[in-house]
């Protein structure tokens, strides 16, 4: 994940071509619910609190960084519609 311009530049250098960066967003309560579901069968119960706390901080970091070419709000959007929106916003569909 790219959290700043240097990260983005590093990824671009690694692949040797221009990048299009899409930021997928969701309201924080939705992100927390998704994280809880993802960690239900986790063998490391201590990791969920870290991820829950990190999610809020990460939103702030990415807001400040402003490195995305575009963002898609996934809060109430089914996965196929998210994929279509990404393709359209990137100019690939």
UniProtKB/TrEMBL annotation:
- InterPro entries given for it? P-loop_NTPase
Per its record, how is this protein called by name? Answer: ATP-binding protein
């Amino acid at each position: 994940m790219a959290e700043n311009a240097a990260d983005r530049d590093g990824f671009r250098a690694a692949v040797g071509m221009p990048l299009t960066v899409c930021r997928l967003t969701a309201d924080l309560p939705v992100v927390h619910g998704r994280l809880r579901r993802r960690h239900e069968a986790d063998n490391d119960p201590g990791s969920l609190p870290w991820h829950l706390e990190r999610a809020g901080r990460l939103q702030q970091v990415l807001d400040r960084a402003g490195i995305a070419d575009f963002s898609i709000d996934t809060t109430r959007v089914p996965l196929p519609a998210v994929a279509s929106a990404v393709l359209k916003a990137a100019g690939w569909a």
